[in-house]
Amino acid sequence: MTSLYRLGYAPMQTELTVAQAERLILKTVPVWAGERAPLPSAAGRVLRESIRAERDLPPYNRATMDGIALRWKSWQSGRRAFPLEGTQSAGQAAATLMDPHAAWRIATGAPIPNGADAVVPVEYMRDAGKGVEIDSGYRPKRGQFIHKRGSDRRAGALLLKAGQRIGGVEMALLSANGVANPRVARAPRIALISTGNELVGLGGRPQPWQIRSSNGPAMTALLSRHGYAGIRALHAPDDPGVLADRIDYALSQSDVLILSGGVSKGAKDYVPGVLAELGVAPVLHRVRQRPGFPLWFGMRGGIPVFGLPGNPVSSLVCLRRYVIPALDKAQGARRAYPETAVLAEAVMFKPRLTWFLPVRLAANKTGRLIAHPRQTNTSGDFASLARTDGFAQLRANRSRFPIGCAARVFRWNG
Amino acid sequence: MTSLYRLGYAPMQTELTVAQAERLILKTVPVWAGERAPLPSAAGRVLRESIRAERDLPPYNRATMDGIALRWKSWQSGRRAFPLEGTQSAGQAAATLMDPHAAWRIATGAPIPNGADAVVPVEYMRDAGKGVEIDSGYRPKRGQFIHKRGSDRRAGALLLKAGQRIGGVEMALLSANGVANPRVARAPRIALISTGNELVGLGGRPQPWQIRSSNGPAMTALLSRHGYAGIRALHAPDDPGVLADRIDYALSQSDVLILSGGVSKGAKDYVPGVLAELGVAPVLHRVRQRPGFPLWFGMRGGIPVFGLPGNPVSSLVCLRRYVIPALDKAQGARRAYPETAVLAEAVMFKPRLTWFLPVRLAANKTGRLIAHPRQTNTSGDFASLARTDGFAQLRANRSRFPIGCAARVFRWNG
């Protein structure tokens, strides 16, 4: 192991718990550098700088109703008829009330004319001569329907913290503050290699002993739901030479490498050996979980390498449980809050392992998230994943999980 | 209103409740035709056909452990040493056990050799001569570690129903069943027009009475989080002629038109009038909600047209609450389950309207979703949306919402 120490990695850990494996992976993965990106293309990316208010929010005293703007004292003195000096629209500089007993017509969003300090909505008045007359029963308050300059935020106030993924809300704030080129996480180049001689592509006709390759497209689709695009998916047969060649090439072209298959204990499980030969330092192998026991993780010069078990359920579960959080960390994203749900029915699980149980989620009327288990025969039963929303994480060393038992849940897409 | 009747629409409804508005919009929006798309590009789109198993799942008796495959009766008869006839790998046709008291080495995923009916994992044996010797204390069961052909699903069984959005799980099933060109919803062409003279673009320097345009980028980003890309965002000033021209062009190029601004009661709120002139039949105007009271919705020849209020909070809330569910329905997507959460603190709201209250969500350890309110000054306070996950829908005609009160919640991104 001397060479691995020299690379700065502790010796490989094996048969870790889920919590240990998660911590070790998240600790090991580096945070990648950010870059500046023009605003439209920054949608969906992780913000890497804090954003402060460019100016006061709102930037001017802003009408929040359509109606008239007047001087409240003038109404208070008993006046109900107000001649109109003009119309104040949004996008115009604030006018000035020349006659303190007059008013301006005003539209929602327009600046309050200088001298006015209340807005009376259009519903409470009628036209009268060259102005309007306010309903006798209506009692405006001073300052009403005025969104005061700076009342939401002062110029310089913190609006967005680094680490948020840019969705609609964040984009609104970036645009409104003129942040044309925010600093964001770079989109990683991700290579996927699915291994296995038994795999046939979409075009081919599988023999009875063959199965169609599905991990490449499935993992690509899941990654894209989490904001990761630009993925190169390759296939490699169970041949150490070809495998080494593909992996070596993928490592030279990528920021992350994800393999599926070849990490178990079979004679043709060449992946860990080939990775070691290529200088990928092993960090962990095997996690006390089902599915996904053979999970492998290592690093080469800042490039995280994940070896996921090849069956489709294991690879999707491990991708969602470990790889996506690791990518999010590498992008500098803040961690999502953990979700929990209660089981809609009792389940049993004998092995002394953490169990990732596919579930369908629904909310009841009291705000509780309910997880409906989809029991599967084996970890290879991926047809049963259809119409599941994610999986529950049921803890190790416990075989009975009663109805109503709370567990962490992971959504496939959330 | 005669012409609208002729178009097949009832007269315009006004001041509806939220539930009435939602129902009316979802009822009015058509379901668009689907199309076939090659599998990789189908990721993220709504499946428009049901998918059945191409063949038995699994397609062969499949080993679920690395070890040896043997005839169980041979072990039961007392034999512990088994000569090996060869290695059965994944991707090879099933071999045949020639000697009933011999065994084959086998890898996870490989077909069980004919004649064998149990797998003994590699952990429970040691090499002995030309074969292996099973540990004396180990007791295999007949059929163990064999994932039987057809035990998950029989050929022809329903795997996926139409209406699911294609994520990782769905992609795994489509690929594994050789569905190279699934029928999916067509990606709609969406036009966004933000209106208002007060708006300045990203490049410009706003005057004190101007604000930067943010609704176009914000709505585009929110739509893209829900799987809607290919959006054209335009701006129009508060000028009926220019507005009519932009809207007319957008209608000719789009499947959906979304406007923000210009639907309130101000003198410059030209949108409803211009839409009527262009033959867009009004379906509803104004909903008993805050924010978003002035919401407008109409149809022209199968094209839904949404007029959202212009302030950033209102437009994002209305987009998430009405437009995205309408787009999902038009794509033939199954409806998402309603989410509920409980309030983390008491809130008060006097107006007799439904209140959409921005919240930050967190789950407690008993599976309850907790909504932490972010109170805002007015519906224009969009800085307070930062770090919210969505909004709670608090019902009308009630002013006190105590701590622990359950409410529906809508996630910005979910």
Describe this protein's structure:
Chain A is of the alpha/beta class. Helix content of chain A is about 20%, strand content about 30%. In chain A, strands 1-19-21-22-18-14-17 form a seven-stranded mixed sheet, sandwiched between helices. Chain A has a six-stranded mixed sheet with strand order 8-5-7-6-10-9. A five-stranded mixed barrel of chain A has the order 23-26-25-27-29. The longest helix of chain A has 19 residues, at about 310-330. The two termini of chain A are about 40 Å apart. The interface between A and B is large, with 123 and 124 residues.
Could you give the distance between the termini of chain A? 39 Å
Main interface: chain pair and counts: A-B, 123 and 124 residues
Tally of extended strands of chain A? 29
Strand content of chain A: 25-35%
Mean pLDDT figure of chain A? 92
- Rg of chain A from C-alpha positions? 31 Å
Helix content of chain A: 10-25%
Spatially, the strands of the biggest sheet of chain A line up as: 1-19-21-22-18-14-17
Give the oligomer, counting copies of the same chain as homo and different chains as hetero.
Answer: homodimer
| Count of discrete alpha- or pi-helical segments spanning 4 or more residues of chain A | 8
Q: Determine the structural class of chain A based on helices, strands and strand pairing.
A: alpha/beta
Biggest sheet details of chain A:
7 strands, mixed
Molecular shape of chain A: elongated
Low-confidence stretches of chain A: 1-6
